[in-house]
Structure formats: structure tokens, C-alpha cells
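Check these lines:
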Amino acid sequence: MTIQSSLKHARVRAGLSLTDAAKRSGIQRSNIAAIENGRRDPTASTIEKIATASHVRLIPVASDGRTSVAEASDAVAEALHRGEAFRAYRALIQIADDLAAPDPVDRFVLAIEPPARITPEWDAALAGVTEWRLGEIGLPLPGWVRAEHGDPAWGWAPPLSDAADSIPVDIDRVPEPLRKRGVLIEADELASV
């Protein structure tokens, strides 16, 4: 996720309109919009002012090429917008893989920023995968994960193809954090090959 998109997500999560953010930061509304949409490169002091207005602090973290859940949600949303469900599913598998990082701090940092909303089912899938991977090593769950309940009655799996829909899911192989949200993806499916 870029700094610009992180700033936009933070502003939206804080419930601030562009006008509110402009008043709080002292940065013109049009400049904030241009920054958030990638049409203008902000200075460090501008980034700090906008972040402070949104009640966040941006902290540089080494990612070792891993994807954060927030970045993965953007990739899923973009793929779905293009009608590429398989690519969206691949992004979900990638985040499951990245959240299996050996360093607990890396896992938590990749999960801390709330992802953008996609659809209720995909939101539940991201939260379930995140809870599963963080829970494997006893890490606390970010608030956004705890707040995403899904619906146990869904019995949802990503719509990849008619053939895939005819293959039954072994419910005992679905990680509990996914199952309780109504997302039926077996743990082996979430392993990168």
C-alpha cells in the first residue's frame, strides 16, 4: 500500500471528509485529494500533517517483500472489479502465505492496518485468514479482525469456476476462524505452491 492510499484509508477510518482533513491539517482540500489519488507527491511534512489530522502515525517497517492485509484487500478489490475472481483468490492465498512469516512482529505488522471493505464474504475471508495465521502463534488480534464476524450460515467459497463449485469442501480441514465466519476454504488451499 502506498503512503497516499494509507493516508486516504486513515482519513476515511477517522470519519473525516476532505474538507475536515483540510481544516485540521492546514493543507488545501484539493491538494489532499491530489495526494490521495497519486497525482501529487507530498513532502514529508505534508504527510505528517495529513496523518496527524487523521489521528495516525506512519511508521516505516521492513516488509521483506511481504504484502500487508490492507494491500491484499486492494488487490482483491481490483481483481474483482475486473471480473478476475481467480486473481482475487490468489491474493488471498498470498496473504495467507505472507502472514505465516516466522517473525511474530512481522505477522502482526502486516495485519494491523484495517483493510478496505470489499464484499461481506471477502471481508470475512480476509479476517478469517488473518485470525488463523496470528492465532497460530498466539498473537493478539487487531480490532478490525475481531469486528468482522461474517455469517456462519453462508457456506461461502470464492466463485472460481463451475467445476470448482462441484468439489465438496471437507469442513474438518477448514480453519476455525474461517469456518465460524461462514467461509469454506480448506487450509491446504491456502498454501502457496
Observations:
- DSSP finds eleven helices and no strands in the chain.
- The chain has two domains: 3-53, 69-190.
